């Protein structure tokens, strides 16, 4: 028996080339009536950056919120839910 695909994890760096993989994921999801989970990881800003004129904790949070809103707008046509998780990517 062939396993049924229910969810597809699409990890992206948001590059132009990654859009081709996304089209494949969409096609696969349509064929199997599956959901797509989109993952984009961002490297954290080092803690010492604030001491050298970098972003403060509040500014980091604002930047993350802005990125999440940008992603929501970008994916609005086919994405029902977007959220941000803060922490190490391999937790």
Brief summary:
This protein is α+β, with helices and mostly antiparallel strands and 91 residues long. The protein is 36% helix and 11% strand. The chain has 2 domains: 1-40, no CATH class; 44-91, no CATH class.
Could you explain the architecture of this structure?
- The chain has 91 residues and is α+β, with helices and mostly antiparallel strands.
- The protein is 36% helix and 11% strand.
- It has two helices and two strands, in the order E-H-E-H.
- Strand 1, helix 1 and strand 2 form a beta-alpha-beta unit.
- The termini are far apart.
- The model has no long low-confidence stretch (mean pLDDT 76).
- Low-confidence sequence ranges: none
Number of domains: 2
* Binned strand content: 5-15%
The assigned structural class equals: alpha+beta
From the spread of the alpha carbons, the general shape counts as elongated
Sheet of most strands: 2 strands, parallel
Distance between the termini: 33 Å
String of helices and strands? EHEH
What does the average pLDDT come to?
A: 76
**Counting H and I runs of at least 4 residues, what is the number of helices?**
2
Q: Specify the helix fraction band.
A: 25-40%
Major beta sheet, strand line-up:
1-2
Count the E strands.
2
Kindly provide the radius of gyration, computed on alpha-carbon positions and rounded to a whole number of angstroms: 16 Å
Relevant terms:
2 domains, 2 helices, 2 strands, 11% strand, two-stranded parallel sheet, elongated, 91 residues, alpha+beta
């Amino acid at each position: 028996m062939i396993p049924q695909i229910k969810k597809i994890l699409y990890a992206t760096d948001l590059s132009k080339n990654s859009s081709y993989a996304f089209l494949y994921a969409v096609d696969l999801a349509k064929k199997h009536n599956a959901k797509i989970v989109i993952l984009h990881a961002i490297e954290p800003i080092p803690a010492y950056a604030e001491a050298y004129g970098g972003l403060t904790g509040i500014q980091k949070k604002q930047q993350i919120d802005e990125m999440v809103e940008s992603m929501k707008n970008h994916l609005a046509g086919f994405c029902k839910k977007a959220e941000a998780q803060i922490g190490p990517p391999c937790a």
